[in-house]
């Protein structure tokens, strides 16, 4: 290295900002934990709201893609671009118009994804030797079990699973930010 340049460890990049704003991380973490608890308590409402938001995102994406297609009419992929935009619009409107049915259908897809993804992880872990492969087997077993549990309760599970998953994500994200904020409070930024 040339003189005058110092090497900073990657884990210290931005540490001074982190230490200054540790309270914001803590507050955001607490807020997310509280929102996660609310999402647990109102998992059906959380599911419906999540599905409606997803539908509106598809509608907005469809409108933007259709506008894009008309902006590039001379392009050879105009019709594919336009049809994709129309498909987004139609599916988005169907989701917004029928959020309960959409949640049930999405939950079945989630159950299938968890089950098949778990089987894949188990097969890979048992057929390819690598260090700590037990964790991949365990991950696969948990995914298979979750997929089966969701599927056994389906279609009823379609009303609460998405909200439960949103709540779990918020809780873990919030807890991570709380721990980061508390650690940042005592951080040395040398």
Explain the overall architecture.
- The protein has one domain (23-182).
- Residues 1-5 have low confidence and may be disordered.
- The protein starts with 14 loop residues before the first helix and ends in a 5-residue tail after the last helix.
- Helix 2 packs antiparallel against helix 7 and helix 5 runs antiparallel to helix 6 (133-153).
- The chain is built from seven helices and no strands.
- It is extended.
- It is an all-alpha fold and 190 residues long.
- It has helices at 15-20, 22-41, 43-71, 78-97, 99-127, 133-153, 161-185.
- It is 79% helix and 0% strand.
Structural class assignment: mainly alpha
Instruction: Give the averaged pLDDT, no decimals.
Output: 84
- Please state the CA-atom Rg, rounded to the nearest Å: 23 Å
How can the largest sheet be summarized? none
H and E order = HHHHHHH
Catalogue the unreliable spans: 1-5
Strand content: under 5%
Keywords:
single chain; extended; mainly alpha; disordered N terminus; about 190 residues; about 80% helix; 7 helices
Helix-strand layout with pairing:
Layout: H1 15-20, H2 22-41, H3 43-71, H4 78-97, H5 99-127, H6 133-153, H7 161-185
Concise description?
Helix content is 79%, strand content 0%. With 190 residues, it is mostly helical.
